[in-house]
Design brief:
437 residues, alpha/beta, Lyase, Ornithine Decarboxylase, Chain A, domain 1, TIM Barrel, 8-stranded parallel beta barrel, 12 helices, 21 strands, 24% strand, globular, binds ligand LLP
């Protein structure tokens, strides 16, 4: 694979004079030598450009819009600060993500707190910090939050997560807006209607709007317009009961390219469909112009991140397969094992060589399912070569684990020829810190 025009690599990716992959002006082989592998490299330029693209494409079509970064895709102080500097809000789904947002002083009024089973301590943390919106996902939470806010003499702004029953055709593990889902109040079952009525009459809650999220990654545009139509038509019935739609959120789920054969729609295409469906239906139904909140995660960080691995041993099974082992795997990227996610790879240390071998790239974890890429054509790999997997910026570090007690990788941010560590590599001591000896 050549990376020119592939849309998979960071915007600053290039082949340098030594024939090596360069990102943000940094030689990736030198980065691997300096920081060790596996290494996740994030390109600051790409991150900022994606933030600006989202903000710009939505604001130009729907001025009262907010792009809230879905931090589950990858949150750490450096990433959170970039999102803030670029004018994004923050979508968090746990006390931990909220605590990190708080640690970097992310303005609480720009925080949306999601999650299908928020605990009482998490809700207390949210109210202590004064988060702008709690996106309520269940009757249990509605009751708990109303009581909690009441006990503090406060009124909390909330949104309700609705489930519109629209299939976005994503992997079954990442499809959320259909009837058979643990998320949200279903329109079809009548639970959404009941939740709206309960929220409108809850003394300590102010229902400012509704949210839905269909799944991820969504390569089609139509599910967004169908779901927007369904949800806005549904909520318009409650105008007489006092529902004033001040905010409307069709969630996130915007796709990125992982392999060349499956390019994603442009951010502008998503913005066009969402803005025009929202404006059009709101006008038809006399719903005013609610603030539009979108929550991209993957599409903000995915392309900015590249994973670097060192090549270890090779196992040849004549007429069957050649396995090449890398020094990472399912512990730093569970996505292939969990979703059969596909990736491409390049030989960062010898970018100008042509493919001559079909190999299966496997990790170092004690599982046969620890396959990063099956049947990929690459130049003949040798021990010590540095291999780069693009489109690794989203959901790999945050879903990483210490399986087999392997430390999690270091992460660097590159810009203009400079690389700075934004997360150091874990040590054996780190992994034992919580153990009781
Ligand atoms: N908003 C809500 C309410 C969500 O649940 C999600 C993702 C997002 C926004 C952001 O979706 P994105 O723009 O990143 O597609 N671990 C899976 C993805 C799980 C997504 C969960 N919710 C993966 O690696 O593909």
């Amino acid at each position: 694979m050549t990376f020119e025009n592939s849309g998979l690599f960071p915007l600053t990716a290039a082949v340098n004079e030594a024939g090596r992959l360069e990102i943000g002006g940094c030689d990736t082989v030198a980065l691997a030598a300096e920081f060790g592998t596996p290494l996740y490299v994030y390109d600051e330029d790409t991150l900022r450009r994606m933030c600006r693209e989202f903000v710009g494409e939505f604001a130009s079509r729907y001025p009262d819009s907010l792009v809230a970064y879905a931090s589950k895709a990858f949150l750490n102080p450096a990433i959170g600060r970039i999102a803030l500097e670029e004018g994004l809000g923050l979508d968090v789904v746990s006390g931990g993500e909220l605590a990190l947002g708080r640690a970097i002083a992310f303005p609480p009024d720009l925080i949306y707190f999601h999650g299908n089973n928020k605990t009482l301590p998490e809700l207390e943390l949210a109210l202590d910090y004064g988060v702008g919106r709690v996106v309520v996902d269940s009757f249990h939470e509605l009751r708990m939050l109303d009581e909690l806010a009441g006990s503090r003499g406060e009124v909390q702004d909330i949104m309700l997560r609705l489930s519109p029953g629209v299939d976005p055709h994503t992997h079954v593990h990442t499809t959320t807006g259909i009837l058979d889902s643990k998320f949200g109040f279903s329109v079809e079952t009548g639970h959404a209607a009941l939740a709206i009525r309960q929220a409108l009459t809850a003394p300590n809650l102010d229902l400012v709007g509704v949210h839905f999220h269909l799944g991820s990654p969504i390569f089609e545009l139509e599910p967004f317009s169908i779901a927007i139509d369904t949800v806005l038509t549904f909520v318009s019935q409650f105008k007489d009961e006092g529902l004033e739609l001040r905010e409307f959120s069709p969630g996130g789920g915007f796709a990125i390219g992982y392999v060349r054969e499956q390019p994603p729609p442009a951010v502008a295409d998503y913005a066009q469909v969402i803005a025009s469906a929202t404006r059009g239906r709101c006008a038809d139904l006399s719903l005013g112009t609610p603030r539009l909140v979108v929550e991209p995660g993957r599409s903000v960080v995915g392309r900015a991140g590249v994973a670097l691995y060192s090549v270890g041993g090779t196992k040849d099974i004549p007429t069957v397969r050649r396995y090449v082992s890398l020094d990472g795997g399912m512990g730093d990227n569970i996505r292939p094992a969990l979703y059969e996610a596909r990736y491409e790879a390049v030989l960062a240390s010898r970018m100008n060589e042509s493919p001559e071998d079909t190999v299966t790239l496997v990790g170092k974890y004690c599982e046969s399912g620890d396959v990063l890429i099956r049947d990929i054509e690459l130049p003949t790999l040798a021990e010590g070569d540095v291999l780069a997997i693009p489109s690794s910026g989203a959901y790999a570090p945050p879903m990483s684990s210490n399986y087999n007690l392997n430390p999690r990788p270091a992460i660097v941010m590159v810009t203009d020829g400079d690389a700075r560590l934004i997360r150091r590599r874990e040590t054996f001591e780190d992994m034992m810190r919580t153990e009781v000896f």
